[in-house]
Write a structure and sequence with these properties.
alpha/beta, Aldehyde Dehydrogenase, Chain A, domain 1, Aldehyde Dehydrogenase, Chain A, domain 2, six-stranded mixed beta sheet, 15 helices, 39% helix
Length: 486
């Protein structure tokens, strides 16, 4: 296959630059293509185009008209479904089954969801008395924030980009999107779909590049950008917050996690093990919601560890297009080096490596990729760095607990607070414990089950703000109160 070329998309046109960087397939280390890195001039052009679009026809579109545009884009995604699947697999190495059933369908579904939401969204209206007895009406209207910078990550590139694009466009904003440098493929395809769907020039713009000294920094510090929405690691979120401070931009962050799972003695153990296999090893552990800390009641600890290890060893690490493949590589060799450094750190800290802890050998081109073994650790104190720091790989540490109070304390003893999973058949305990967990989302007897209307986001180092349903619309729009004296 010929290497692809990933261009920037500004004001309805595809643009090249003088600086290109490689997009590498993490399965076998082959070259997927070359991306054109946006310089400051291209970012300035994108901001100007976005502001012109706000002042142009897009700024006068009614909600129903914006909803129609979003539905056209979703239809365009469906029409090129296989192309999007192939692009996502090439950039990330994830299994075909995941890309076909989760990443790409959810991308189109995100746009349709917010199209339906904005077409039916209401506003507030209050009647109030006045001294003369005539009264007054106060009602609110939504106005777009303006130009929104969307910075999306590499782990679920298309799903998470559309999760932000949908509400941003639905609310009437214009967008400048910057995908991760590791995953430019599906975003560039989306730009092609935008062009084919006749989205007005400047409404959607795409810039490729890196963070500091590149497109990311140019975007977050630009005075013409009114808001930044970002999903990624917490350290990058902090850097963006500092960069945006001078211009007091609106910010929405979904950041990292060191998520806990609690398995109580009354849990359905088969269900808990099935769920924990998913919550630890899905997408090779590269999901911000994955469980990296698993706490199991002491009466079930040995059995749970043994059975989870059996399942981890049995996970099929194969080529993405093999329907039997259950787990793919990490996104890059650089990220593999990071994960392997934590495997080594865990050894130095005294962990028992129940299974994994290294690199698989295939005897074929996959040995040039970014693969690591699914890994289970035990025996570390709660103060160990391997227990406290986000690893973002197919790994968890399992520790025993004796009381409900102890489990809650251990789960909450983290700088992060994104998600948690609780496994119990005791309904009262489920409600009681879930309310005490310091996290933005708590699953009971399930994991990664999402109602797109519900609030999504984290606390502490895991983020700022909430996404989902009306919570997304509230971020991407500014309410204006209009008071009418009767």
């Amino acid at each position: 296959m010929q290497p692809r070329e990933f261009k920037n998309y500004v004001a309805g046109r595809f643009l090249v630059s003088d600086s290109l960087f490689d997009d590498i397939n993490p399965v076998d280390g082959s070259l997927v293509g070359k991306a054109h890195e946006a310089d400051k001039g291209i970012v300035d052009h994108a901001v100007a185009a976005a502001r012109d679009a706000l002042a142009g026809p897009w700024g006068s579109y009614a909600p129903a008209e914006r909803a129609a545009v979003l539905n056209r884009i979703a239809d365009g995604i469906d029409a090129r479904f296989d192309d999007f699947v192939a692009a996502e697999i090439a950039d990330t190495g994830k299994p075909l089954a995941q890309a076909r059933t989760l990443d790409i369908p959810r991308g189109a579904a995100n746009l349709r969801f917010f199209a339906n939401l904005i077409a039916s969204a209401g506003s507030e209206c209050f009647e109030m008395p006045t001294p003369d007895g005539a009264g007054a009406l106060n009602y609110s209207v939504r106005k777009p924030l303006g130009v929104v910078g969307v910075i999306s990550p590499w782990n679920l590139p298309f799903l998470l980009m559309t999760w932000k694009l949908g509400p941003a466009l639905a609310a009437g904003n214009t967008v400048i999107a910057k995908p991760s440098e590791e995953s430019p493929g599906s975003a560039t395809l989306l730009a092609e779909v935008m062009s084919d769907a006749e989205v007005p020039p400047g409404v959607f713009n795409l810039v490729h590049g890196f963070g500091p000294g590149s497109a990311g920094e140019f975007l977050t510090t630009h005075r013409g950008v009114d808001a930044i929405t970002f999903t990624g690691e917490s350290a990058t979120g902090s850097a963006i917050m500092r960069a945006a401070a001078d211009n007091v931009k609106a910010l929405s962050f979904e950041l990292g996690g060191k998520n806990a799972a609690i398995v109580f003695e009354d849990a359905d153990l088969d269900q808990a093990i099935d769920g924990t296999v998913r919550s630890v090893f899905s997408n090779c552990g590269q999901v911000c919601l994955c469980s990296e800390r698993v706490y199991v009641h002491e009466s079930k600890f040995e059995e749970f560890v043994g059975r989870l290890a059996e399942r981890a060893v049995a996970l099929r690490m194969g080529w993405p297009d093999d329907e039997q493949t259950e787990i793919g590589p990490l996104v890059s060799r650089a990220h593999r080096d990071k994960v392997l450094s934590y495997y080594e750190l865990a050894r130095e800290e005294g962990a028992d490596i129940i299974t994994g802890g290294g690199v698989p050998e295939f005897g074929d081109k996959r040995d040039n990729g970014a693969w690591v073994q699914p890994t289970i650790l035990t025996g570390l104190p709660e103060t160990a760095r391997s227990v406290r720091e986000e690893i973002f790989g197919p790994v968890c540490h399992i520790a025993p607990f004796s009381t409900e109070e102890q489990a809650i304390t251990m789960a909450n003893d983290s700088a992060y607070g994104l998600a948690a999973a609780i496994w119990t058949t005791n309904l009262s305990r489920a409600h009681r414990v879930a309310r005490q967990i310091e996290a933005g989302i708590v699953w009971v007897n399930t994991w990664y089950l999402r109602d797109l209307r519900a609030p999504f986001g984290g606390v502490k180092l895991s983020g700022i703000g909430r996404e989902g349903g009306v919570h997304s619309l509230n971020f991407y729009s500014e309410p204006t109160n209009i008071c009418i004296k009767l």
